[in-house]
Amino acid sequence: MLFALHLLALSVGGVIFLGMIVLHHRARAVKRRAQASGILSSAGSSFACHPTLWLAIHSSNPKAVQAALGLSYPAPCPWSEGIAGGHDFFIGAPVNDWIVVTGSGLPHPGNDVDLCFHFLIRLSRVAGEVQFFMADPLLHHHAWARVENGAVKRAYAWINETVWNQGVKSIAEIELNMKCFSYGEDAGMDDATTEEYATANVEQIHALSARWSFDPTAADGNWPTPPDGLAGRSVRL
Questions:
Q1: Does residue 133 share a domain with residue 93?
Q2: What is the reported pLDDT for 192?
Q3: Residue 141 DSSP one-character state
Q4: Number of structural domains, the chain?
Q5: How far is CA 50 from the centre of its chain?
Q6: Could you tell me which of 23, 145, 188, 215 has the fewest CB atoms within 10 Å of its CB?
Q7: Shared-domain flag, residues 121 and 225
């Protein structure tokens, strides 16, 4: 009888402990949402024009990029509308021989990192040099990749853990003090430290894209707003 009561007490204690862990994670999630909401509110409407996912393709020919993506029924689209990512694909006008592509049709490494890998490989075989960037200010998920003619030169993606780390760390990453975990390296770290590194990386993504190619948010201040681009869907991709 006493043994049974002892087991019951241990079980109840375990349930309470697990419940406290769940509540802790929920509280952190609510805090992140609140922080992100504050970011969005303080930044105003300009922040809404900043993409979470985007490509930078080394080209000055939008029609070639359109063909590489298999874009169907393209229509003119203002930069401010297209760069927000509301279309399946948006192909921006060339800026310094780089074309920015945004849209919901771009693969998210958090959903399927293999799909993201193969998408970039296939696209780069046609388009040449393709760079991929992701910066999520809410969840702090982030990624960057440089692929040339079907070969990955450098790639890193963190979705609560490292899901892609390939190639040698670039000089720009080193100079920007970006932290890149090896597979499983961040598993034993406490949440606060991991989140600190993740937040710092997200804050440097646009600086990295500016060094590698072109930062699409630069049109807010450093560059005049580019001309209209093209928006459409891609049956092929």
A1: yes
A2: 84
A3: -
A4: 2
A5: 12
A6: 188
A7: yes
Quote the mean pLDDT of the chain. 81
CB 225 within 8 A of CB 63: no
* Residue (of 132, 118, 131, 48) closest to 83 by Cα position: 48
pLDDT digit string, tens, across residues 154-194: 999 999 999 999 999 999 999 999 999 999 887 667 778 88
Output phi, psi for 170, to 5 deg. -75, 160
Judge whether residue 24 has pLDDT over 60. no
User: Same domain for 123 and 181?
Assistant: yes
Same domain, 44 and 54: no
Domain boundaries, position 121: 50-234
Cα Dmax for the chain: 80
Q: Which two tokens stand for residue 62?
A: 């939008």
Amino acid identity, position 189:
M
- Judge if 55 and 44 occupy the same domain: no
On whether both 97 and 22 belong to a single domain, the answer is no
Whole-angstrom Cα distance, residue 196 to residue 206? 18
Higher pLDDT, 233 or 226: 233
| Comparison of pLDDT for 225 and 230, the residue scoring more | 230
Instruction: Let me know whether 1 and 77 are in one domain.
Output: no
DSSP 52-79: SEEEEEE-S-HHHHHHHHTEEEEEEE-H
